[in-house]
């Protein structure tokens, strides 16, 4: 299947951070957050990046787990402790690729295909569940000011 076949079969739509997605699960149970908001216990989505698509730097207020399904290796770049950390999701375990990764809450991160060709299909789960009110897309100037040593990456992914 091509990326466009998968997008059509899974009914994916464009995501504001880049790529395509569809929510597949939202727990019926809810909880109150420390800020006094109500969130579902967990959510899950399919997420697909194709060719030179990027998931631009963003962060959310919950932990997010990424699970690789198929396609090309997907690189996730996290900005933590002032330094970029790179994780590669894929099926080549002997080459250091991971079948899943955890993005800690409030961590700036971005993603792209490691070789900018083909596609990667992953799932993402968030707990407490995802809510766009907890989503922050990075502003380039502010992120460069916070991580000047990663200015080139920030410019590439904002």
TrEMBL record:
Residues 4-138 form the DUF985 domain. InterPro entries: Cupin_DUF985 (IPR009327), RmlC-like_jellyroll (IPR014710), RmlC_Cupin_sf (IPR011051), YML079W-like (IPR039935). This is Cupin domain-containing protein. It comes from Hymenobacter lutimineralis. SUPFAM superfamilies: RmlC-like cupins.
């Amino acid at each position: 299947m091509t990326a466009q076949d998968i997008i059509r079969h899974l009914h994916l739509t464009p995501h504001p951070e880049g790529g395509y997605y569809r929510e597949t699960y939202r727990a019926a149970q809810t909880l109150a957050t420390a800020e006094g908001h109500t969130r579902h216990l967990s959510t899950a989505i399919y997420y697909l990046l194709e060719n030179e698509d990027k998931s631009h730097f963003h962060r959310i207020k919950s932990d997010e787990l990424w699970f690789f399904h198929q396609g090309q290796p997907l690189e996730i770049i996290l900005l933590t402790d002032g330094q970029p950390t790179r994780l590669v999701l894929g099926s080549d375990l002997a080459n250091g690729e991971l079948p899943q990764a955890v993005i800690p809450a409030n961590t700036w991160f971005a993603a792209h295909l490691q070789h900018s060709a083909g596609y990667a299909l992953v799932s993402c789960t968030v707990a407490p569940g995802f809510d766009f009110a907890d989503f922050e897309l990075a502003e380039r100037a502010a992120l460069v000011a916070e991580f000047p040593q990663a200015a080139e990456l920030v410019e590439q992914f904002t």
